[in-house]
Amino acid sequence: MKDVCSLRVKNVIVLAVLFLVVMTLFMAVLLGVLLSSFEYAERSDISETTTRVTRAIMDDFKNQMDILLTYSNWDSSYYLMKTYSVDQMNKRLNVSYGNIDHVEELTGANFIGYYFLNGTVAGKVGYDFESRMAVPMPTEMYQLPSFLMENIQILSTMNIGYWTLKDGTLFLVMAAPVQCSGCGFTDTPGIMMWARYIRSVYVSQVSNRAQVCITMYNLQSGKELDSEFTAVWNQIKSKPYIYPNSSSIISEWKNTDPTLIRMGNVAESAKNQRICFGNDSSSTGERIITYQTYQDIYGQPSFVLRTDFSRSVRELGLQSFGWSYGFTCLVVILSSLIIFVLNEVIVVTPLVNLGYHLRKIMKNTENLADSTIPVKGITEISTLTQRINTMLRVVAASSEQIAKRGNLLEQLLEKASLEEQKTRILLNSISDMVLAVDRKTANVTMANTAFFNKTRYSQKDLGSISRYLKEFSQESELLSKINQLVQSSRDSWETHLTKPTSEKIPVKISAKLIQFPNSEKSECESLRDTYLLVCKDLSEEKKLKEKKQQNQQLLESIKLIMEFDKMFNNTQLRQEFKKQCEKERSVENFLFLETVEQYRRIPNAQDRVEKQQQVLKQFIDPSGDNHLNISGQVLQQSKVEIENGLGRYDALDKLETFVRDMVINDTWFRYCQQRK
C-alpha cells in the first residue's frame, strides 16, 4: 500500500512540477512580449499626445495670425495709420472695436494696438472677456519689444511668441506690418499687435482640443510653486525649451519633444491648478506625466505645461495578459487532470497489481514453479509481466538444480574433512616440522605440532611463508626456490626459520608438490596444488660441530705450547729459533723469556732484586737496549707490579705469560709453519 501511495504521490508531484514549469515559462514569455509591445505602444501614445498639445497651441497661433493678417491688410487700417492723429485714431478704434462680443468672437484678442514703425503705440483698445469690461492696455505694452519688430519692413513678416510682463502677466502676442491691399502692398506705415491673456480659459481650450489633463506653471508669476513641481523643475530647467516661430508647420518648431516623462499619481498639491477635459479630472491610479517648457520672446523660460493622461494601453495589456494567462492555466489544469486519470488507469493500476502479485510470490518462495502473474495493462506492462513469469519458471528450475548441487557438495566436503583429519594426525606424528604452503597464494594452510612447539607460533599466526623464511626479500624469489626443490627431489636447502622473537632456527628443507583439500569449500575447486615442506631442525647438529671445532682449536694450541716448551728446553733448537727471532726483529721478546728463566734460578732474594732492576732497565725502560715491543699500558702495569714485588719469585709471571703467548701465537706459529 505504501508503494501505491508513493507511486501516485510521485505522479502528482511530476504533474505539478510540469504545470509550474510550463506556466512559469509561458508567463515569462507572454509577459515579456506583451510588456515590450505595450511599452512601444505607450511610447507612441506619449509622442502622439504631446504632439496634440503642441499642435493645439500652434493652432491658436495660426488662427490668431490668420485673423490678424486680415485686419492688418485692410485699407482702412492702412489709411488710419497714414492720415489719423493719435487722438483721432483712439476715437476711431473705440468705435470700430466698441462691441466686446464682436471683438471676442472675431479676434479673440484682449488687446489690439497700432504702433508706429519705431515701436511707439499709436492707438489701443482692450477688454477683459471674463469680467466683460473694457480695460486699459498695460503701460509696458506702450513700447513694442524688439523681438516683435524684427524684419517688420518685410511685408510677409509675422512675429509671434509669449510675452511675460513684469507683474507676471502672461500673453500670447503676435505682430504684423499694416499694409494696403488696394495699393498693391507697396509700403507699411505701422505695425498691428494683438495680445491674448494666457489664463485658465486658454488652458481649458487646449485641454479640450488635446483630450488630456493640463496644468500650467507660470514661472514668472511670482507665486510659490507646489513641492512636486519644484522637484521636477530642478531636473528640467537646464534642458532645451520650446520656441514657437511664425511657421504654420509644427515640425519646424524647435524642441517640441517632452522635456521629462514619468509615471506616477497626481499629487494633491497639483490638483488645484489641473484642468481636464470632460470627467477625466476624477480619474485615479497611475498616469503618464510629461513636461514641456516654453520660452518667451526674450529667450527665458516662460511657463511649463504639465500633461497627464491615463495608462490605458498598459492597463489594457495587463488585463489581456491576465485573461490569457488565466485561460492557459485552466487549459493546463484540465490537461493535467486528463493525463493523471489516463496514467492512473493505463499505468499505475496495472503496476500496482503487478507489485501486489510480486509481494505475494516473495512470501511463498517454495512454490515458484506454480506462481504466475495475470497479464494486464498496456503493451509494455503486459510484456514485462510475461517476462517476469518466464523468469519465475527459470528461477524455480535453477533453485532445484542448486539444491541438488548443494547436497553433492556437502557429501564431498564431509569426505574431504575426513581426509584432512587423517592427514593432520599423520603430520603431527612426525618429529620434523612440516608446513603445507598454497602454491597460488604462498600462504601456510597447515602446520604440524612440531612446528608450533619449536617456533612458538600459534594456529592464528599462520600466514605467508615469507614470514618464516626471510632469506629472500621477494616472495616470488622464495616460491621459485621452493619450486626448484620440488623439481630436484634429492636436493635440500639449509636456511633458517624465524621465530616471533626474531630468533633463528637452522633447518634443512626438502619439498614436494601434492594435491591438498581446499579448506575454503569452493564449489569450483575441491583440491588445490600445495607445497609440502619438511624442515629438519639442525640446532643440535650445529652445536656439536661448533664444540668439535673449539676442541680442535684447543688441541692445536696445546700442541703448539708443548712444542714451544720442548724447543725452549733444547739448546740447539732454542738457538735456531733465536736466529729466526733476530731475522724478524723480535729477539727482545725471546731474550726477555730467557732472562725470566734465569731470574727463577736465583735463590737469593737480594740477587733477584738486582735482576729485577736489570729487567726494568733493559726491557721496560723506553731507552733500554731490548725494549719490549708491546702495549705501553701493559708495560706500565708490569713496571708497577715489578717495583711493588721486589725480590718476589713470581714478580715477572704476568708479563712473562703475556710475552710468551705473544711469541707462541706469532713468531713461533710462523716458524712452525715454515718448518712444515
TrEMBL record:
Keywords: Membrane, Transmembrane, Transmembrane helix. It holds the Pfam family CHASE4. The keyword Manganese does not apply. The chain crosses the membrane at residues 12-35. This is RGS domain-containing protein. It comes from the Eukaryota. It comes from Naegleria gruberi (Amoeba). Residues 563-676 form the RGS domain. The keyword Transmembrane applies.
